[in-house]
């Protein structure tokens, strides 16, 4: 199984894990935003920096993922949402539902 990947972000002298890869880093690897999300790679569209260590790690991860055939499946919605009014607070139907008024 391919491990999940996270980028490194530098802020002054501090180095921390980022929320996602920048679009420039994805472009250097040869991915677009849709393909990256389909592979399960986190994307941060607000970032404009591109670090070579992120590009190298992402390139290695994508090669490994393509070898193993990794795809992230989207979950289907299990049931339909509630129909009608979502909030039945002090309306007549809400009072009937909670037993404050006889039907």
Highlighted features:
4 helices; 2 strands; mainly alpha; two-stranded antiparallel sheet; 103 residues
Average pLDDT works out at 82
Which range does the strand content fall in? 5-15%
Quick one: how many beta strands?
Answer: 2
Number of helices: 4
Give your account of this protein's structure.
The mean pLDDT is 82. The termini are far apart. The chain is mainly alpha-helical and 103 residues long. It is 37% helix and 8% strand. The radius of gyration is 23 Å and the shape is elongated. The chain has a domain of 61 residues.
Short description:
This protein has 103 residues and is mostly helical. It has helices spanning 23-29, 33-39, 52-68, 92-98; strands at 8-11, 14-17.
List the helices and strands and how they pair.
Layout: E1 8-11, E2 14-17, H1 23-29, H2 33-39, H3 52-68, H4 92-98
Antiparallel strand pairs: 1-2
Helix pairs in contact: 1-3
């Amino acid at each position: 199984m391919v491990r999940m990947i996270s980028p490194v972000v530098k802020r002054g002298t501090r180095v921390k894990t980022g929320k996602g890869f920048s679009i420039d880093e994805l472009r250097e690897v040869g991915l677009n935003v849709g393909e990256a999300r389909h592979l399960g790679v986190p994307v941060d569209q607000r970032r404009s920096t591109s670090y070579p260590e992120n590009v190298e790690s992402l390139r290695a991860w994508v090669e490994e993922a393509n070898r193993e055939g990794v795809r992230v499946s989207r979950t289907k919605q299990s049931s339909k949402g509630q129909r009608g009014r979502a909030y039945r607070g002090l309306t007549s139907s809400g009072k009937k539902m909670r037993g404050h008024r006889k039907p």
